[in-house]
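User: Hi! Is it possible to get a structure for several chains at once, not just one? Here's what I have:
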Amino acid sequence: MNNVSALRRLWLAMLILTAGLLFISAETGDYWPVTLFAGVAALVKGNWIIQDFMEMKRAPAVLRRTLRWWLMVTVSVVTAAAIVQQ
Amino acid sequence: MNRANTAESTHIPGDLALWFFLLAELAVFALLIIGSALVRTFHPDLFRNGMLALHPQAGVINTAALITGSYFAAQGVLQIKQNIPAAKRCFLLTAATGMIYISVKIWEYQSLLSAGYSLHSDAFFAFYYLATFFHFMHVAAGVVFMLMFYRALVRKGITAESTGHAESVAAYWHMVDLVWIVLFPALYFMRS
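Assistant: Yes, the chains can be modeled jointly so their relative placement is included. Here is the combined structure:
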C-alpha cells in the first residue's frame, strides 16, 4: 500500500467514524454508548491525524508524545466531564 | 543505525519556529476545553440544554470538511515531495473545504442568534461562542495560508523551498483539524 492509498483509507475511515457517530446518536439515543463512541472516535481520528497526516512517524519523539498527550488529556477531560454530568 | 537513518528518524515537518507557535495554540485550546469541562461539572443543566439547541448535522458536515481538507493537505505535501505540478490543486481544495466550514459555521451562528442564543445567554453559550469563534478564526487563517501557498505554486512552480512551506501550511491545517476533532463530540454529541 503506497502513501496516497494509505491516506485515502484513513480519510474514508475518519468520515465513516464521523457519520457513524451521527447514526448511533440518532438510532440509540442512549447517553453512554454515544458518549463512549464519541470519545473513542475522537482518540482514533486524532491519532491518525497526528501519526499519518502530520507525518509524526519520523518526527522527534518529544514532539510526537506532546501531541499525543494533548489529545489524550483533552479527550479524557471532556469525556469524564460528560460522564460526571450524567 | 547510520547517519542517514538517524536524520530521517528525526525529521520535523515544516518550520521549527512554527511548531512552537502550534504548541502554544494547542495549549490555549487545551485551557479552553479543560475550563469548559470544569464549568460543565458545576452547571450540568446549562450544558445539557445548550447542547440540545445546537445542530449536530452542521457539526458533522464541518468535521467532514476539515478532515477532507487535511487529506488534501497531506496528499499535497506528498505530491510536492514527488515534484508533481498538480500538487497545487490539493492546497486549493483544502482552502475550498475551509470555505465550506466557514459557510456552515456562519449559518449556524445566524441560526442560534436568531433563536435568541448569544454570547451572554449562559455559561455554555459563552464557551460555545468563545471556543468555536477562536477556532473559526484559525480556519479562516488556514484558508488564507492555503491560498497564498497555492498562488506561490502557480507563479513560481515547485522550488527548493516548496517542501518546507507545504509541510508548514499542512501542519497548521492539521492542528486546526485536531482541535476540532476534540471540540466536535464535546459540543454536539456528549449530551444526555
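Chain B touches chain A through 50 residues (CB under 8 Å). The radius of gyration of chain B is 19 Å.

User: Great, thank you!
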